[in-house]
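Here is the promised in-class demo. Please do not try to memorize the tokens; focus on the logic of going from shape to residues.
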């Protein structure tokens, strides 16, 4: 049982906060960068376990690696998977600390 909870904690990496995703929060949708191999059921279980909320919908998209150039060196940024989670209307996730 402990191993399952550890795996759920490793699925969600960090919240994605941009202008577009802050507009999503008004519609009760939240964006997270997740493990590249995670599927929708794992993502739903991880969000419900971490934040104690009820998820109604999960949309995912794989973001391809982008090339970056620093001087004469060319490299690639890491690829990642983005999950857009829609919560039930009575639940909220507080991503920002209100002082």
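The designed amino acids, position by position:
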């Amino acid at each position: 049982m402990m191993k399952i909870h550890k795996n759920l904690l490793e699925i969600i990496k960090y919240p994605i906060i941009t202008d577009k995703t802050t507009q999503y929060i008004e519609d009760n949708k939240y964006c997270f960068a997740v493990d590249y191999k995670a599927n929708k059921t794992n993502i739903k279980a991880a969000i419900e376990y971490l934040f104690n909320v009820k998820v109604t919908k999960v949309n995912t998209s794989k973001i391809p690696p982008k090339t970056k150039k620093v001087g004469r060196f060319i490299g690639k940024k890491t690829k990642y998977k983005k999950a857009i989670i829609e919560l039930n209307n009575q639940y909220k996730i507080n991503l920002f600390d209100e002082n």
